[in-house]
Amino acid sequence: MMNSADEASQVREFARRIGVPGLVDVHTHFMPERVLKKVWAYFDAVGPLTGVEWPITYRFEEEERVRVLREFGVVGFTSMIYPHKAGMAEWLNGWGEEFAGRTEGCLRTGTFFPEAGVEGYVRRAVEGGVRVFKAHLQVGAYDPNSPELEGVWGVLAEAGVPVVMHCGSGPVPGKFTGPGPVGEVLARHPRLRVIVAHMGMPEYGEFLGLAERYGEVRLDTTMAFTDFSERMAPFPKGELGRLRDLGARVLLGSDFPNIPYGYLHQLEALERLQLGEEWLRAVCWGNGARLFGLEPVR
Ligand SMILES: [Zn+2]
Fold first, then answer.
1. Per-residue pLDDT tens digits for 170-226
2. C or N: which end of the chain has fewer Cβ atoms within 10 Å?
3. How much distance in Å is there from the Cα of 18 to the middle of ligand 1?
4. What is the CATH number of the domain that holds 256?
5. Is 296 among the domain residues?
6. How far is the CA of 191 from the centre of ligand 1 (A)?
């Protein structure tokens, strides 16, 4: 692993070279300390379980992790929080508010779960200033078509607040992952701003199809196209043209800090797709800056 000052200067050099004033990363994980420790313990156990080692590159204290992102020139990022059971989401949302309040550059992030009262707390979160939500269909193991969530999708569609959704079937499928269940939600809420996490890995083509069909659907690049993911779930070369054509709705995401490689690798993995500098500028900066109304930091 290269030292952090070298890495930061290389990430900044990447941004300078492609001609963007900074990076917007819609998929970074900051969460309450004890939850993050559990997530890290999971990744530590994954190696022995699956044979695929998952060393966390940025296993630092919170303050240090924020500092590293700033040094990379990431001027907008999120704190992707998500519950695995009922009764947790409001507590996470309280933490998200507190974290964004003390962390410049963090877009206040919220989450939800199909449970009693969910529409009310999501509405309050939107009114209170949540900029982006996270929904994890694989970890949460819930159907996005649950009746409790019907009002939630309506609130989000009306407010135009995006929801980063882990709805693809990677790295392991869930009962409600894949393009089917979220596709049904979109059929009822065609203006819902779903940001498909991980490009919908491994169902890339089908999720590109949802974005082609619904003008507010976007995709985040999180872990996609990297050597790590290409070994397990390669992006089909035949779909590169569709990916290029959807360039206005692809957003940089990284999964920082829980990644088994350096941050620069995600950026280089996008560049080596050779979809052009205009595409790269839109993905790394323009699309996210426009969606969230961000200005360059001088
Ligand atoms: Zn993630």
1. 988 999 999 999 999 999 999 999 999 999 999 999 999 999 999 999 999 999 999
2. C
3. 26
4. 3.20.20.140
5. no
6. 24
